[in-house]
Amino acid sequence: IPDTRKLLGANIVPKKADITGAQAWGNMILSWDWGGWIKPQIDLIAGNNVGGNCIRMIGEVYGIATGMYTEAFYLARHRQLADYCASIGVHLYACCSGKGTPAQVTISNDGAVNLMAGYLRMMGEYPNVIGVDVVQESNVVAKPTDANLIEILSKLRAITPLPLTASTGEINLASAGTAPWIYSMAQYFDFIDIHNYTYPVTMQSLDG
After folding, report:
1. Taking the complete model, does pTM exceed 0.70, yes or no?
2. Fewest CB atoms within 10 Å of the CB: 25, 89, 107, 123?
3. Does the pLDDT of residue 141 top 90, yes or no?
4. CA 15 vs CA 12, 25, 192: distances in Å
5. Segment 52-72 mean pLDDT
């Protein structure tokens, strides 16, 4: 990406029907309503005349381990996504997993790397792929430990030249909370992806 280019985009979101338990992203892959749900979101982001030029798709490679779908099924859907984004000049921010290691999956670091390997190799074929979020919001519950994540990142770098990170869901970088996580882990990432959520506020509290 040229240094002068700004990225403006959004996540592909699952349908309400897909949001059951912790498997929303896997359910979206399984149902894969391309024409009625996924492609229209891309077209809206890229064609809304506000400069939208990037899509982030939260994947779920661990659905392969649980038998939710095969690797071939999973990769075919992501290839359709990558091909379409490339055809309309949209960047793609890839993401291996929304859940990390689900409770129903006991897997080694090498096992996690093997699950991600095919997806990363395929994403490496596309010049419009800007990087990979290895685990969505890695600092929250049910995700790899820091030591495991560091090892996984190291092993993935032997598979792909794509920039790697693990995004973080921070509440407030100025507070105690989870903020120290990104401070201690940033050195292991090629770029930083902070999802800076804020506490709900009322309109009255913003007045004046």
Report:
1. yes
2. 89
3. no
4. 10, 10, 28
5. 91
